[in-house]
Amino acid sequence: MIIELKNIEKININDFQKDLISWFIAEQRDLPWRKDQDPYKVWVSEIMLQQTRVDTVIPYFNRFIEWFPTIENLAEAEEDRVLKAWEGLGYYSRVRNLQSAVREVKEKYNGEVPNTPEEISGLKGVGPYTAGAILSIAYGLPEPAVDGNVMRVLSRILSIWEDIAKSSSRKVFEKAVRALISHEDPSAFNQALMELGALICTPTSPSCLLCPVRDHCHAFDEGVQNELPIKTKKNKTREVHLAAAILTNENGNILIHRRPATGLLANLWEFPNVEVYHPMQTEREQMVELFNQSLELNINLEKIIGQLEHVFSHLVWNIKVFNGKLNSGFQESDEWKLVSLEEMKEYAFPVSSQKMLKLYLTHQ
Could you give the CA distance from residue 149 to residue 201 in angstroms, rounded to a whole number? Predict the structure, then answer.
């Protein structure tokens, strides 16, 4: 595949680097993972920041590093504890892959995050972007770290009309970064591109008049900054209707269920729920029958306490939430537990279940 970047030669690369990096040094946000260049902390922050806003990540990062300050701590931690630290961040496969990779680093690399593209890319969950971010930010190597922010910035700077939703386009932007990156300070250069995309060169209404590299930007010069980047829309999300129940026994303890070890929200705890295929026709008696048949639970549903929606990247859950009673004869197991509200704090729940619990508590 021959990749041509027709506008690279029109840019004064030294001036571009100087303008970009000096702006970053002066204007960068005070973020906890920037306090040092510890490869482990850079790694954790980059995994957390995938598909998650910076403001959301900050408290999670601080808590995660407090709980697992070193690679050894994370490698040796129980998965339930790790999931609890990640609770609410979503995309839980990220942290499972992180722990798996950290264990490999401990065993194979004596606890030192590898500093070559080949070795670091072989770790579970470490794709081209994460590898480039760690190598450039923590180790000062001139490797590209191409995320959505970087593709948006460079599509405008170089007037690149490739569809950034296509995975094949990444190679175009990686080539662009390799041509432009500062070899004296690749860490600041890559972080500056990301920061520029987050603060100035935003998806809509970019703040071109505040941009430190506006004089180098072909899209601004041509007046097409609002037309770039090209990005096709994703397929429509699928809608799923669920009935969920917060069930208590005679002692007031609440029934929780561990999800399967693979698939969506793997190994997290939740309240019992069933998919409802005819939501408009389903009465409470039919719900009870569904719970009995699907989950082999003998229950009494009392009333609906609310309805909520939870959105994933690929589907939407519409959930009717009931309260009810668990009839006698129930036996606990590894997948089913009866816990008090206080004990529930030790278990990791997805956001949807946290929303259900809030609903339940407002009806007590």
Answer: 8
Residue at token pair 């606890």: 111
Task: Label the pairing between strands 315-326 and 238-248.
Answer: parallel
Distance between CA atoms of residues 349 and 57, nearest Å: 18
Tell me the mean pLDDT in the region 236-256. 92
Q: DSSP E strands: which ranges in the chain? A: 238-248, 254-258, 269-270, 273-275, 299-311, 315-326, 336-339
Q: What value does the mean pLDDT of the chain take?
A: 92
Architecture label for domain 238-362: Alpha-Beta Complex (3.90)
Say yes or no to pLDDT of 2 above 60. no
Q: What residue ranges do the domains of the chain occupy?
A: 8-222, 238-362
CATH architecture of 8-222: Orthogonal Bundle (1.10)
Q: Which of 234, 246, 156 is nearest to 197 (CA)?
A: 156
pTM above 0.70, yes or no: yes
- Indicate if the pLDDT at residue 313 is higher than 90: no
With contact defined as beta carbons under 8 Å apart, do 20 and 217 qualify? no
Catalytic residue positions, numbered: 46
Mean pLDDT of 231-250: 89
